[in-house]
What does this fold into?
Amino acid sequence: MSEDQQDYEAGVDYPPMAIPGLPTNEIAAALAKAQAMMEPAKKDSENPHFKSKYADMSSVVTALRQALASNGIAYYQAVRYFDGEPRLVTRLLHSSGQWLEDDGVPLWCDKRSMQALGSALTYARRYGLQAASGVAPADDDDGEGAGREGNGATDKKKPPPGITKMREQLRAFCVEVRSCDDEDQLDLLLKTEDAHLAWANAAQIDGGEDSLREEIRKQRERIRTAPALGGDAEAAYEASVPE
It folds into this structure.
């Protein structure tokens, strides 16, 4: 066992996937075979607020469980702390004893409560497992993909499937943020499913997370220094979501 491996076993806080000297050849080959067998995760749950569908944890597990198991791969997820920040870490374990581990999904909770933690864990488990395994949700772009076929160079000017809807959902959530009259109301909003969906959408848009973080910061500042913002909040935010 190398010195680095000994340090890791002794609890030295290495970032995940940065442990030198650990072989991954067998699990990498098995994971490649498993990914070739995986079906897209079905979007069979609905977000009533945005009237959109998404693949829940059950759908994700159904899409990958047989493919992983038939190639000798299991997974587990656990909360760990890195630099004082809680993260939900996903590890893939192979029958050879080799394993792969992600960097963890941050567990963002605005309040110290089990409800807030449970909500964050629900999303982190799903996103972490999708990313670690490589399974993807079934495309659900309402026919936009089919409409782009055969358009030649014009296609390159259009955003990827689903990005337009993500931007619209992100803008809608930012309007909700701007409508909060006090910090308690804002904190409650940030614990909802809408908030986690907004962060997920923001992560897919260039600069989206920074824009959303700044929008929340600005609203807290408005609440602390002046009455709640009035007027057309959606129009005011329109230009701040990256194209």
